[in-house]
Amino acid sequence: MRFRVIWWIVHCGGLALNFLGIVGNHLQALAEKVWHYHLMNHQLSQADVLLVLCSHDTRVAERGAQLFHERWAPLIIFSGGLGTITKDIWTEPEADQFARVAIGLGVPKDKILIENRSSNTGENILFTRQLLAEKKFDPQKFILVQKPYMERRSFATFRKLWPEKEVVVTSPQVSFDEYLDHYASRELSRDEVISIMVGDLQRIKLYPDQGFQIYQEIPLDVWAAYEELVQAGYNQRLISA
After folding, report:
1. pLDDT digits (tens, 9 = 90+) for 15-45
2. What does the pLDDT look like over 93-109, one tens digit per residue?
3. Residue 139: helix, strand or coil by DSSP?
4. For the whole model, what pTM was predicted?
């Protein structure tokens, strides 16, 4: 009897682990499909301003500093107060922390503006407009700098709220696996990052009707991946439809 039990554990247990591995790989593939949809793959061109949308991921500040040193634009604006995630982990505004990262990487203080009141993407844009109006500066071309999985939603928000300006969007140049393995914040797990990606996709679908973003088509296979990920439990960042 004991040998039968051992046989069952070895053989059936192995099948269970293999099944779990297959399920995990499938969900990973679905998440990667959503990831690639969020990326805009814009080609950079010379701009007047680098507008860095802040968050928990300070590596976006590093990307902004890199672009400044590459001379894509002569000015950086860091925009962000405390948002949904950072209000629970930080007390200092996101923009102040991002600016400190950039200064540490050699960006001169007089080439940086800080907007540190906003708590969402729409406010990032609106409060930046106010800041620039106060400075009597009217730039025409922007490069948005954001997390990879926030490219599309940030672009859609900017185009809705500031349609007269030219804009492209970029982010840290990493793959999906690299981001989850090395770029995901110490404060967030892989599953939490995927949940945020899923929530952002839902917002891309819902927000145009609410006046927050321009409409963008979501391919059927991307939406099917979204629905399957929601059913699998990646629903923590969804909003009520």
Report:
1. 443 433 445 789 999 999 999 999 999 999 9
2. 999 999 999 999 999 99
3. coil
4. 0.87
Domains and CATH numbers, the chain: 49-170 (3.40.50.620)
Three-state secondary structure of the chain: CHHHHHHHHHHHHHHHHHHHHHHHHHHHHHHHHHHHHHCCCCCCCCCCEEEEECCCCCHHHHHHHHHHHCCCCCCEEEECCCCCCHHHCCCCCHHHHHHHHHHHCCCCHHHEEEECCCCCHHHHHHHHHHHHHHCCCCCCEEEEECCHHHHHHHHHHHHHHCCCCEEEEECCCCCHHHHHHHHCCCCCCHHHHHHHHHHHHHHHHHHHHHCCCCCCCCCHHHHHHHHHHHHCCCCCCCCCC
